[in-house]
Design goal:
Chain lengths: 261, 261
């Protein structure tokens, strides 16, 4: 898939950069699970704007129906989902992929997710859960680091080595569990292995007890446009069992989706 | 839930309205399943901007990593999901609701969705599908009209009559099937019935063969913050069977989620 430069912290304003637009997007992003309802001052602080600037953006969002206020607290409305939906609906693949993923979940009785790469993260674009819940919430649009996930290492494997290394070097690498590989060269070896075998298994490197395996979704030009994975619990499913019993079904599902592209 | 005015087509610019921000959001929304990759001219036409204005917005989006280009065609990146995810993550209820919905799907073997009201539409915020697929794609962020859906009529029932009627009058009401109720007074009677019984069943008014029943998710102040539904196929599940066998489980799930609020 196409790449883009890492997001600069403070791009320089200029003829071709609309500062007020960038600031407005930052206001939208200042709302979160920790800050679902914010005062004007909180929005200003969270988006790096003056109170006057934050007020103008909030009033614009309110006029457009993206924000409501009780006079003191501001809250995003569901209309904001239209912005993300513009992306998802611009990828009709997911409509067609979903039944394949649902059939896979019925077969293996584990959750199945699809993700794409964005800089150093994977971003979930579709997810078919089972009733067995993991600790991590992985809704559409949520992110995880690429370096320690099966989806991420496989997606990194579609980049050339220089680019994959650059992404790893830009990552905030931490030993999230005692199994997490944190050395860049060791991670590059994992990425090379994923590239060679065209699948990737990661065993408890993101979270203790969580094991997952990923397979690529590839377009007609041979580019990896996304990756599909199955996640399970290590105490129910060993790495060996996941590879032997679930990986073939996963690869078949990923190939079926790829043939639709 | 809080209400907001219908979105005006062309709000007047002024001291408290940031035109460039509003235009930038329109550029994001110009991408769709029909227009996943657009030229500068197409974006300009789709968002009502001049080429120069569209170019500045696209370059800003590119700088921020929300858009990539091959030099000719522009495409949204998955980073755009961060904007919608700001909304979803600002409602932690959905993390906690999902396991309840998954258990319900396992029990009734039909899809379960959660939605909120936005002007005249319902917007899906969470969905747990089964392997049986309906004709309509109902991903997170997708919309359906409120007037002909069980979720919509129930959510309208939480408004006062004047507001509910205003929303219906603002709706583009069509006979989508031969069963669709299109008369405003008749629809208001359906809304009143939903308010009284605190659930709503709609039988093939959105699509032939599609039947669904909805129950409210209510916060501690008694406000309906969302609605939950089960959808099924009329040829497998009659309205009577849905009401007698699935509605009790649905209401129990909705009450469990409400108690978490």
């Amino acid at each position: 898939m196409a790449t883009h430069p890492a997001q600069p912290d403070t791009p320089a304003p200029g003829d071709s950069y609309v500062q007020s637009f960038a600031r407005g997007l930052q206001v939208i992003r200042s709302f979160s699970a920790n800050a679902p309802h914010q005062t004007l001052s909180e929005v200003a602080a969270g988006s790096g704007l003056t109170r006057a600037g934050a007020r103008r953006i909030l009033l614009t969002l309110q006029t457009l129906g993206y924000v409501v206020t009780d006079g003191k607290l501001f809250t995003l409305t569901p209309r904001i989902l239209d912005l993300g939906f513009a992306y998802l609906s611009s990828m009709p693949i997911w409509n067609r992929a979903e039944p394949v993923m649902e059939a896979l979940v019925q077969q293996v009785q584990e959750s199945c997710s699809a993700a794409v790469l964005d800089a150093t993260d994977i971003v979930y674009v579709l997810r078919v859960p089972t009733k067995k819940i993991m600790h991590i919430n992985l809704g559409v649009g949520s992110r995880l680091p690429a370096y320690c996930t099966s989806l991420g290492r496989l997606l990194l494997a579609d980049l050339d080595d220089d680019e994959a290394r650059a992404r790893l070097e830009a990552s905030n690498i931490e030993a999230l569990t005692k199994h997490t590989v944190t050395d860049i060269d060791a991670l590059m070896a994992k990425v090379a292995q994923a590239r060679k075998q065209q699948w990737c298994l990661v065993n408890q490197e993101l979270e203790e007890g969580l094991i997952s395996v990923a397979a690529p979704i590839v377009d007609r030009q041979g580019r990896m446009v996304a990756a599909l994975n199955i996640s399970g619990q290590a105490n129910r499913t060993s790495a060996k069992a996941m590879q032997e019993t679930m990986l073939p079904a996963l690869r078949e599902a990923a190939e079926r989706i790829s043939r639709m592209l």
